[in-house]
Design brief:
Length: 300
């Protein structure tokens, strides 16, 4: 059975009243255990990512601002959260979880991070509720500790992984691939190795055709040694921010395509949960739970 990074700090309220950032982080593990998709022993609590690993991905000037709480007001607005020690601690925990998940994925075929997917964080700044880029930190872990030369990022969140694209723009060992809402956030897109912008309202048939075509062709051509899968469910038709027209069944089929393609070629996959902002919390939990169920059915 696969392992899942989870820490109660994801759910702790901050002094200013923010709750991180939605109840889904607390409710999803309960749902997965209750229905028997995973056992409680599958969950592990990461420790804090060390400063040297942060500085492998992020610039020292930016990290000093995060560490010491000296971000400028405009930088905080870009991130979307006011600075706090709890916020930085949470990000370090998330990133450590994704780094650890690379090891678990190589062992079990797949691994998950309940709160991962901070793909809007750049080398020198945070954006879109992301301070540190856990996918980039995980990829650097594989490069530095396992000499990996072909890492594929499959980002299927509705928002482009602009930070991840910027971090790896000159890194041939990491191929960044994103299917995202063409007119959605961020307004100014970065250049991934392959970007597919889709129109508002795109439905299951056209969306899944793109996923199937490009995921399979990239795996065949790039022959990755490892895949990071950003599995945001903000592609759903009832998502408040997504504006696409993908059904719950279509979102589940998207996950099946990614997992079956990876499993076919014995490629480890680390899954980062990403976004989900439907009006009904139950819809968010069900969509995220489907990703775990699909992994359980394919990887065993």
């Amino acid at each position: 059975m696969f392992r899942i990074a989870f820490d109660p700090i994801y759910c702790h309220p901050l002094p200013d009243g923010h709750r991180f950032p939605m109840a889904k982080y607390e409710l999803l593990p309960e749902q997965l255990i209750r229905e028997g998709t995973v056992e409680e022993s599958a969950f592990f609590a990461p420790d804090l990512l060390t400063e040297d690993r942060i500085l492998r991905t992020h610039e020292s000037e930016y990290w000093e601002k995060l560490k010491n709480g000296t971000l400028e007001r405009r930088e905080e607005r870009k991130i979307g959260f006011p600075w706090s020690e709890a916020l930085v601690r949470r990000e370090r925990t998330i990133c450590r979880g994704t780094a650890m998940n690379t090891e678990y994925a190589m062992q079990d075929g797949v691994s998950f991070n309940i709160a991962g997917g901070t793909h809007h964080a750049y080398t020198n700044r945070g954006e879109g509720f992301c301070l540190l880029n856990d996918i980039a930190i995980g990829a650097h872990h594989l490069i530095d500790h396992h000499n990996f030369e072909r890492i594929l990022v499959v980002d299927l969140d509705v928002h482009q992984g602009n930070g991840t694209a910027q971090i790896f723009e000159n890194e041939p060992r990491v191929f960044t691939f994103s299917i995202h809402g063409e007119k959605n956030y961020p307004l100014q897109k970065e250049n991934s190795d392959l970007d597919i912008g889709v129109p508002d309202g795109i439905g299951d048939r056209d969306y899944l055709k793109l996923v199937d075509k490009h995921v399979k062709s990239l795996v065949d051509e790039f022959q990755p040694q490892f895949i990071f899968f950003q599995s945001g469910v903000d592609i759903l038709e009832n998502d408040k921010l997504g504006r696409l027209g993908v059904s719950l069944a279509g979102c589940r089929e998207r996950d099946r395509i990614v997992f079956e393609t990876a499993h076919r070629d014995n490629i480890p996959v680390a899954v980062n949960m990403g976004g989900g902002y439907s009006e009904k919390l139950a819809d968010i939990i069900e969509a995220h739970a489907n990703t775990y169920r699909m992994a359980a059915s394919i990887f065993g």
